[in-house]
Specification:
This protein has 330 residues and is of the alpha/beta class. The chain has a single domain, classed as Rossmann fold (3-Layer(aba) Sandwich). Helix content is 45%, strand content 14%. The chain contains 11 helices and 13 strands. The strands form 4 sheets. The chain has a 6-stranded parallel beta sheet with strand order 2-1-3-4-5-10, sandwiched between helices. Strands 11-8-13 form a 3-stranded mixed beta sheet. It has a two-stranded parallel sheet with strand order 6-9. Strand 4, helix 5 and strand 5 form a beta-alpha-beta unit. Helix 4 packs parallel to helix 5 and helix 6 crosses helix 9. The protein is globular and about 60 Å long. One of its GO terms (biological process) is 'de novo' GDP-L-fucose biosynthetic process. Keywords: Isomerase, Multifunctional enzyme, NADP, Oxidoreductase. Pathway: Nucleotide-sugar biosynthesis; GDP-L-fucose biosynthesis via de novo pathway; GDP-L-fucose from GDP-alpha-D-mannose: step 2/2. It comes from Massilia forsythiae.
């Protein structure tokens, strides 16, 4: 008789969701349930309700989200707040209605105030103004945390939240305008190397500092937190700040990051900075002491993670180019 839990990974085709699926499979889980966006639109409450009624889910990893960098957040603020709030509300509520007791919500470090003390502690949430360039997305993620806390308080569920720092790695979005900083830099330096461009210009001054976590480390942390016994989790959190930061505890300037990406890609030209473009939050480093006390810490150094990320990007590019050649030959 199969006693393994049926685990629904919402957003399994995205950066974090795909890494969680890889991690669960590597640990022997066979009862993994997934649905593509075409199969299940999570903003549709009726369809989400039907899914939970029919699938008998035991655990949920809520990694589905509309995500993007500064440009995407500035261009589509209504979609970022609406889609994320609807997805979170539907999945959490229908999971509860169907009797799911264990759920892990994946948020973002952008939930914290723009000028929060460094490193940022979990209790700094809602202690100041958010970064304007991603405020709608951040508000949606804060609502997701409070949604989980509220269901725990009222219904006795065991819904937990993890707040990752900036993520990167296999499965990333390399769109030239809507991607986050590392995939955007990887594409730009790769294309500049192929074109033998004399210079790559980076948005902003290069002075802001950011923390970056390899996505498979994030997946391992998520599974670790999900599987903590309830007493251990409760002992390190409180009902009003139940989320846990996930990061490396180390940060780097955007300028130094750009130089690292250039080295990994093999670009030999100059790196310039367009100071007319926004920098975003000056610094964003997470305090990860709570997670370390719970027995987990990151293991992938940034240079090694960047090498793996670039290798994954090259695989994506090879498939794209091969597909283009086949279409041209047809």
């Amino acid at each position: 008789m199969n006693t393994q839990p049926r685990i629904y990974v919402a957003g399994h085709q995205g950066l974090v969701g795909s890494a969680i699926v890889r991690t669960l499979r590597a640990r022997g889980h066979t009862g993994i349930v997934t649905r593509s966006h075409a199969e299940l639109k999570l903003t549709d409450q009726a369809r989400v309700r039907d899914f939970f009624r029919s699938e008998r889910i035991d655990q949920v990893y809520l990694a589905a989200a509309r995500v993007g960098g500064i440009h995407a957040n500035n261009t589509y603020p209504a979609e970022f707040i609406y889609d994320n709030m609807m997805v979170q509300a539907n999945v959490v509520h229908e999971a509860w209605r169907s009797g799911v007791q264990k759920l892990l919500f994946l948020g973002s470090s952008c939930i914290y105030p723009r000028l929060a003390p460094q490193p940022i502690r979990e209790q700094d949430l809602m202690g100041g103004m958010l970064e304007p360039t991603n405020e709608p997305y951040a508000m949606a993620k804060i609502a997701g945390i409070k949604l989980c806390e509220s269901y725990n308080r009222q219904y006795g569920t065991d819904y937990r939240s993890v707040m990752p720092t900036n993520l990167y790695g296999p499965g990333d979005n390399y769109h030239p305008e809507n991607s986050h900083v590392i995939p955007a830099l990887v594409r730009r330096f790769h294309e500049a190397r192929l074109a033998d461009a004399p210079e790559v210009v980076i948005w902003g001054s290069g002075k802001p500092m950011r923390e970056f976590l390899y996505v498979d480390d994030m997946a391992a942390a998520s599974v670790h937190v999900m599987n903590l016994d309830r007493a251990s989790y409760a002992a390190h959190t409180d009902p009003m700040h139940s989320h846990i930061n996930v990061g490396t505890g180390e940060d780097v300037t955007i300028a130094d990051l750009a130089r690292l990406v250039g080295e990994v890609v093999g670009y030999r030209g100059r790196i310039g900075f367009d100071t007319s473009k926004p920098d975003g939050t000056p610094r964003k480093l997470l305090d990860v002491s709570k997670l370390k006390r719970l027995g987990w810490q990151a293991s992938t150094p940034l240079p090694e993670g960047l090498r793996r990320a670039y290798a994954a990007f090259l695989q994506v590019e090879d498939k794209r180019l091969d597909s283009g050649r086949k279409r041209a030959a047809a």
